[in-house]
Amino acid sequence: MRTQGIKLAVALMTASALIAPQAALAKHKHAAPAKSKHEIELEARLARLEAEVSEMRAAAAAARGGQAQADAGAQAAIAQAQAQAAAATASAQAAQAKAAETATKLAALEKKPAPEGMRSGATTIKLGGFLKMEAANSHWSNGPVTTNTLGRDFYLPSTIPTTAGGHSATSQDFNAKQARLWLNLDTQVAGHVVKGYVETDFQVTASAAQNVTAGGSQRTTNGYTLGLRRAYIQVDRFTLGQDWTTFQYVAALPESTDYVGPTEGTVFVRQPQVRYSTPLAKNAMLHIALENPESALTTAGSPTLVENGTDRMPDITARLALTGAHGELSLAGLVRQVRAESTGTALTNAGSGLTATGVGGSVAGKLWLNKDKSADLRFMATYGQNIGRYVGLNFAPDALYLPTTNSLSNVKVFATMAALHLPLTARTRVNLMGGYQNVGYDNALTAAQNGTFNKKAWSLAANLFYSPVKAIDVGIEYRHGERDLVNGASGTLDRVEFAAKYSF
Questions:
Q1: Rounded to whole angstroms, how far apart are CA atoms 395 and 416?
Q2: What is the mean pLDDT of residues 271-300?
Q3: With bands split at pLDDT 50, 70 and 90, how would you rate the model's confidence at 306?
Q4: Are the C-beta atoms of residues 224 and 209 closer than 8 Å to each other?
Q5: Topology of domain 118-503, per CATH?
């Protein structure tokens, strides 16, 4: 537009220069009646210039009008583009909101447990468990453990030989006794939730007899008896039946190829009970139970445990379970009566009754070591008097019978364990664990009365687990354990164990 303006100005100036002589001539028109040829040509030239000037002015006006129209069109196009952009933005936001809503619904559906089990009337029935094979190479410092006994199948410190001058022994064992099956029942009855649970395995039945009916033989069929682990019903807040003792914090048990792990430091009992559970706060649950009593006693001079079966008062247990952002904490207590019948010189099933009070406490928990809770530290510490059967699979007796005074001597127990669980990758992890137990007897007892009794046990273990797929776990573990008697005799166990487990 600026160029066209300049051209127009030049044309006008030129025309003005040409028109000026014409105007001078007009003044003298009356004095020059006849036009010369040159004048005629000049007038024609001026006419043409005037026409061209008019055309240029018209073109300039048209150009200005076209520019205005172009500007208006451009503004309209911009407005239309802005409207389209706004509509596209609104559409994108709506699509994004729809996608977010869909993702939320999908996440909710994925979180919702998939239907499991089968229906029988109003009851949902679920079957689960795992199949497990283990292979252990065990080396004892003071002689072997009898074949087909529990000490060959898993770490049981009370079975480590302590014979003075005994020769070392090594044994290789394969078994699948820990294969576990459970059945879960769930029924809605008149607005109440009624649940049932049954759990079994083949590990609890042990026998040194070389035949199938008494516990299995490694020579031929390796057939073992199905044993009851847990069987209970739940109605609202009540649990009735056989379950883990309320005195135990089960979540402290570490991941191990072994049946228990650091046995000597762990509370480990399953028994019939009546338990009531109630929440005290959002993150606090109280459990109180009456549990099956059973006293495991020894007689001075003989460490063999004897079950009289003459108990008259249920064991009373309680546990406060606390949960938080950093972990879990369990505070448990136990009060019981240890009872025996005696003739005055020996234990019997019918005679005068002897009693002793048992009391104990246990602190246990799990601390998360990372945000996704894949790493943790598990721990347990237990102390008590006359609670031997609850700790370390009865490493210590509940009480010691003294024939000389026809009385029960108290036995104190301190036990502790810790386990560190660390993931290395999404499919591999390591576990480091250790356990310890110390038994205290009356200082007045002589070596003849309790010299061959268990005094102390400890162990350390480390393992590596790998899960090629979600349902399969394979692991290898090394464990060193030691058992000491009151008289100073001791024995050790070194074991390398491999395990493979399929959970379903």
A1: 13
A2: 97
A3: very high
A4: no
A5: Porin (2.40.160)
